[in-house]
Amino acid sequence: MSEVQSIAIVGGTHGNELTGIQLVRHLQNSPTPYSDNFILSFILANAEAIAANVRFIDVDLNRQFHLDNLKSSNSMLYELNLAKILNQKIGPKHSPLTDLVIDIHNTTSAMGPTLIVLEDSDFYREMARYLKQHMPEANILLEDEVPYQEHPYLCTVGKRGIMLELGAQPQGVSRSDIFTQCQSMLQIILDYVDLHNKQALPSSEPVTTYRFGEVVLFPMDEEDQILGLVHPNLLDGDFQPVKINEPIFAMFDGSELLFKGDKTIYPHFVNEAAYKQSNVAFSTADKFMW
Amino acid sequence: MSEVQSIAIVGGTHGNELTGIQLVRHLQNSPTPYSDNFILSFILANAEAIAANVRFIDVDLNRQFHLDNLKSSNSMLYELNLAKILNQKIGPKHSPLTDLVIDIHNTTSAMGPTLIVLEDSDFYREMARYLKQHMPEANILLEDEVPYQEHPYLCTVGKRGIMLELGAQPQGVSRSDIFTQCQSMLQIILDYVDLHNKQALPSSEPVTTYRFGEVVLFPMDEEDQILGLVHPNLLDGDFQPVKINEPIFAMFDGSELLFKGDKTIYPHFVNEAAYKQSNVAFSTADKFMW
Questions:
Q1: How far apart are CA A250 and CA B215, in angstroms?
Q2: SS3 at position B88
Q3: Whole-prediction pTM value?
Q4: Is pLDDT of B184 > 80?
């Protein structure tokens, strides 16, 4: 397995997710312990959105890294052009300069520190195991419903790419406990990559992992008004199981809507503010030992 | 003391504070238990901001109800003109149609259900006591640093006006537990006003109350970048005491900044997302028995 030499650490892909922005700024101004081991670059991805304290200016930057988008002609949309610039800087996708892109995000849902990986391979599996060993409170989320490079995420312009997702934190807020947690998480990931390069990884144990299933929409009326809210049972407990016939929505009329699937789900991204526009209440996952 | 006949229940003064918006919509479509006792009106204050899921379009609507603003000529600013329309509809300030305005807000800080009153008088003191008796988890915040009508808040166009402030809830998110809490809080306030009208209030006990002091800014460098975050000790515990020389900021360089005042403070609006732009980290309060 090839070495990971160049690493891009990215914050501000979404301009109102402050932990990554502040951590990248801090790292830019600090002596980096790993500067001898890696070629590190620190990137604040969406400067305009950061300045405006919004998720994005025109469209979600973290959905613009489809190869089709990157090959299209210039656009009126700020983030579509920005994606092309970033693709040149840290990609380009399919023949990248960067061996690993670490993109730092926040969520308003109580997902704790979650490592999102996009491919079921040795490198990511061992990373997940190493992280969980050194940060037991971390969650592992595998989104491999499409091949790695077909994802539209910024981190996929790297040869490898992951997302660190930390919550619960409101948009436009930075919590000191989450900032510290993110620092630790990043350090553990860099430790892992260094040990991977040196072929010095300790033996690992299978790790509880959640695999993305589908999104669940709010119940809506014919005029596109929501009819209820995510049930109290699902609040502040992302990745906790919900069984068949357990309530998932508390309706404004006082009734409850029950989960009518065919197997236990593990909701996450519960009440993520950014997904309100698409009426997404939460995502589901399966659980397995990886 | 005069009767309270007309009550305006307002949501969406800030377009991304969803609890009040959804509660007003729900009440508009539901049989209202108090329709015989009061003339109730339900108002979604800032329709454009609600549609855009933002706090405001041009300027903060809840700071535009100074008498000078309301008397000024037409403006390019959407919310300044909107304030004049709302002033005619539920005010006008100084000779109002509405006896009581109840304006519902959310905060990203962990203030729980907080009743904000703007004047130290029998009516509000007894309301605070009645609320606390029926909802022990509620907090009472008195902002009487200026006379009632000199406040710039929407609710001050009513003869009397209060704000219900519920948190922690991220902007653009609606939590079912907070929605239910807001329903209960509103019900208790209406019960109180009904008993007040009937001169049938039970005897009351003094209530712990917080009186607004001042705002505390984030520590900043010369380039207007913040140098630290609100200390973990202050997170998720609004209205908990901070004593002299206790830490209030965790600096990015690893150090702590201590509180250098001359008396114990009770921080609130800790990490309120909307105050980021003004670099406000939290507000302080004194505590007293009211």
A1: 37
A2: helix
A3: 0.95
A4: yes
